[in-house]
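Lab notebook page, bench 4
Experiment: in silico fold of construct C2
Operator: M.H.
Input chain length: 568 residues
Purpose: comparison with the prior construct
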Amino acid sequence: MATVERMPPGTVRLNDASSHPSGTKHVYTASTGSLVLQPKPTDDPDDPLNWATWRKWLNYGVVLVYVLFTFTLLDIAAVAYSQLVDELGMTYQISTIATALNFTGLAIGCVAFIPLTYRYGRRPIYLLSVTVQLVSAVWAGSVKSTNEYMAVNLVMGLGGAISETIVQITIADLFFVHQYATVNGIFLFMQGTGAFLGPVAAGFIVAAQGWRWMWFWNAIFLGVTLVVVVFVFEEATFIPSSADEAMANPPASSEEGFDGAADTQSKGQKGLDPLEMSRTTSLASRPVLTARSRKPLRSRLALVTKTDAPIKHHYITPFILLFQFPAVAYTAVTFGAVLAWFSVLISISSTRMVDPPYNFSPSDIGLLNLWPFVGQLIGALGAGPVSDRWIQALAKRNGGIYEPEMRLWLALFPAPLLVTGGILMFGIGIANEAPWVLLAMGIAVFACGFSVCLDVALAYLTDSYQNVSLHSHLQSLKPDLAKLTRVIGDALVGVVFIRNAISVIVLFCLSPWRDAVGMQNLFVMVGIISFLFCMVPIPLLIWGKRARVATADKYRYYSGRQPGHRPV
């Protein structure tokens, strides 16, 4: 039997149909046998992993509403380009600079705000984000000059900066490893809904009420979102009590290196899909909860849940992690590359297709976004469940042991073909004034590959560095060190910063790049570069586990500096 010493961060026992030593929590599926819950919940009723399924999904549902209107706000500007040209004297160069400033705000805001979630909790940061976005939406609808337009884009980026990182932290708060890809798929779907369907609605609003009202309507919906967050979203920060830590560190089993194992469940629970796992968890598979009282609603909806944990290192650690952990670097590069290429597609389509031979109106530009919406819908809702079932099957073949690299096969096929093919279809087509349907199909194909790449990258990062338990002998010598720890927030801050930094660079260079090489050559170059970026999973499939082994001690060091450790 494998020992803990040989298990790097991310390698966990995901299923075990044959043996169940005491201690590990399971759910049962027909295809894989007993599925071990990772991370292991405590016996505290306030542990978000122990929340009832409806309570988890209500909280996550509020987050999804926040994501929807955040990405609507961030992506509707291109619809009104021709109106901005007429009223504010907008030019293509100013438009790309404004978009680049938006990404600058996204990059800076993430670094500035996310560390505060460790000191003050999730709720105040969500509330701050929605409030800043609400103010920026009202301001955007009132701008009088291009300089003011560029300034509001920077503030808008600051307001939406946490939108991806804090969502991943919330997912890690509420859900288990075997659910990550599915839950991330839903997140990416809502992200895409805001980014793609938001402009569709905005196009009709511009046609009917003018471009300013597309911002004012967004402000109204953000105001409703603010009220919902205030009165519905519960604080998901979990601070274990001393009783949790004492009960969570019994003597290690002599025959199992995965912190012991557990009670099995009745075979009547067979056949559950990944989205039903948390329901099973909330019933028979959950640890027996203690009699302590659950926090009152007033405490769960408190404005601030303050801890005394230091946070200064959270402003530096994200950049250190980028260079020390290959999984973090891979996710950052993947996010940065695909988002940059997507920004190129949107920028070119919104400015070029308002001219002959296309002559698109604002509503036409908005409707064009239906195509990438369909593409990302197929990618997001397909990749997540397929990825989760894929890893369960591979883990079963691997003796129940799950390796995060098992997810990466989907990033090699079909993602590179979709991403590169979509770029070339759109780029070569628009350079040769091809029918708009061909251009729309290219964006849709790209969006499908875009969604698959992001879902796999997010799940791989979360799986690799979500948790790690110390050696079993440390549990008996130093129980306070035997904790499930997290560095996912710091890692994602670095990922989002690099992602937006790449987009800023590409957008600032886009206009002179296009002028220098021409439209067709621009997209041929982008297609080749995108394909090379999509090949990054190959070295991870070969050396990824070795890298996790080599960086295990560093991971334990950084995770040990995280506040709110969860006991094993």
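Observations: The chain is about 65% helix and 5% strand. Residues 20 and 531 are 45 Å apart (CA to CA).
Next step: discuss at group meeting.
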